[in-house]
Amino acid sequence: MTTHLQIFHQSNQTTDVDVPTGQSPLITEDDWATSRQSSSVSAFVDWKEPSSKNPLITDVKWNEILQYSQLVSERIDYLSGLQRLKKDWVSGFSETPSESTINASKALLLSFRNYVQHRKALRLPKLVLGPIPSGGVSLEFHIDESNALFVSIRNGKVPEIEVKYADYYFTFEIETKKLPARLMDQYEAITEK
User: Fold this and answer.
1) For residue 54, what pLDDT band results from cuts at 50, 70 and 90?
2) Which residues contact 193 (CB under 8 A, 6 or more apart)?
3) Which of 68, 157, 181, 183 would suit a FRET pair with 110, their CA atoms being 20 to 30 Å apart?
4) Who has greater pLDDT, 19 or 32?
5) Which residues contact 28 (CB under 8 A, 6 or more apart)?
6) Angle, to 10 degrees, between the axis of helix 179-191 and the axis of helix 99-117?
7) Helix (H) or strand (E) run with residue 58 in it
C-alpha cells in the first residue's frame, strides 16, 4: 500500500511520488531537487488538482507534512487493531469499540490529515488516541498547553467535541457525518491567534 503525493509547481507541472506504507515518507534528495525547479512548490496528497486556497509550502513544511502523514497512517493501523480487544479489556466492565465507531474514527483522521496538508501556517497537533472503556474511541488534538480538541466517538451515541481554547472549555454534540467539517472549523479557530 502506498500514499500517492503530487507536487504542483507554479508552472503547473507536477512531480508524482508514491510513498510505501511503513517506510520513511521522505522523498530522496534527487526527487526533491527535481521538484524544486521553481522557487516555490505546493504539495497535495490524493488530490488531482491544486486548490486556490492552498498556499505554497516551504521545504520545512513539506517535510513536516510527510512525517505527519506517516504518523496518521500509523494511528489508523492502531485503530484497526482495536477490533481485536476482548470484552472487559480493562479490569472491571469495559466494551470493545464497535466497527462503525472505529471506521468513523479512521475517517476523521483521514479528513484531518488532508485538511492539514493543505494549509501552510497551520500548526500540526500532537495526536493522542485510544479506546474508551464504556465502548468507543477518544481522539485528542493538542496544539499547545492551552489549546486542544478532544473528540469522543462512543458506540451507538452521538459524537462529542470538547474544545479547550485559552484554557476555557466548551462541549457540543455533532452528527457523525458532520464531525470532520466541524472539527476542522474548531481547529482552525483555536490555531488562529
Assistant:
1) very low
2) none
3) 157
4) 19
5) none
6) 40
7) none
Q: How confident is the model at residue 47 (pLDDT cuts 50, 70, 90)?
A: very low
- Cell for 163? 474544545
Nearest to 107 by CA among 134, 80, 143: 80
Q: Establish how many alpha carbons lie within 13 A of residue 138's alpha carbon, considering only the half-sphere containing its beta carbon.
A: 11
Q: DSSP string spanning 22-52?
A: TS--PPPHHHHHHHTSSS-EEEEES-SS--T
pLDDT tens digit sequence for 70-124: 899 899 999 999 999 988 888 878 999 999 999 999 999 999 888 877 775 578 8
> Shortest CA distance to 128 belongs to which of 117, 142, 109?
142
Beta bridge partners of 9: 41
Contact 187, 175 (CB under 8 A): no
User: 141 to each of 64, 117, 129, how far by Cα in Å?
Assistant: 16, 15, 9
Specify the residue for cell string 482552525: 188
**H helices of 42-137, where?**
59-81, 99-117
Q: Can you tell me whether residue 145 is helix, strand or coil?
A: coil
C-alpha cell at 38: 521553481
* Domain span holding position 141: 2-191
- Contact yes or no for 120/132 (Cβ under 8 A): no
